[in-house]
Design brief:
Blueprint (H helix, E strand, L loop, with lengths): L1 H21 L1 H10 L4 H10 L7 H8 L4 H7 L3 H4 L2 H22 L6 H16 L7 H7 L7 H26 L4 H11 L3 H8 L3 H13 L11 H18 L8 H19 L15
Helix pairs in contact: 1-2, 1-7, 1-10, 1-14, 1-15, 2-7, 3-7, 4-5, 7-10, 8-10, 8-15, 9-10, 10-14, 11-13
Length: about 290
Amino acid sequence: MEVTVSRRLWTLLEPLHAVVYFTAPSRQAFEDAGYRGFWRGYFAGRAAPLGPVGAAPVTALFYGFAPRMVARALPAVWDLAPPAAALAARQAGAVTALRQGFTAQQVAADDDLLTAVTGLLRRAVDGADPGGRPLGAANAALPWPDEPLAALWHGATVVRELRGDGHVAALLTAGITGVESLVLRSGRDLDRATVQAARGWTDPEWQATADGLCARGLVDVHDRITARGEALLDDVEAVTDTLAAQPWHALGAGAVGDLVELLEPLARAASTLLPAGTPIGLPPSR
């Protein structure tokens, strides 16, 4: 049951968070803050809760980017604008995007609904143990916004990054590097061209990784995932779901059910703002 609940809440919260990456208002907010170019805004916005951090810890925490790609943005982005500016930009862009999405889909996201949702999210976050989850902990330490849409996005983001830290731990324990996880997912369900370009790996690096996975029986000679590779990824996802269930213990089954019901129309509306294919493998919201 915990795994089922954890997976369902992920499918609902991830689209709400992801508007910060894939919508025009968010890109404009980062540009207005001084972060010219998509990737400067991405690395500044996602890393900002950690402070003016350099490339090495971000490469480790984000777990999948080629180190040189991260190093092109960090720490140089902090010379363009400080972390506080990135935090403000990401929140402003996400709020504008969500407001536009809810309006376009005629979702009645009034203050009462948003207050109810964020109240439940806040209880979940307050009940979570962020130990061993540095990116989630850094986001959880930020103050909750007063503005209802901002609070919704913040809550979704904290839970999302707590889950992401657990996913990295699950991959690491399974003996799968960041780039290996990308090659495996591309052999299963993601578009290689999109993922490889978005994470900065060269063709020789990608092929060397695929060859190593092939030698372990995890992909075949055509880089398609094997049954053994499928089982490994399924195990990783199961561990991720189990680790991600912890914040929901504080709510109890009844409150979790209420949260799912309240989130469903919001998640569907947010999903309409996102492209069909992304390098983060967005789940279906339904």
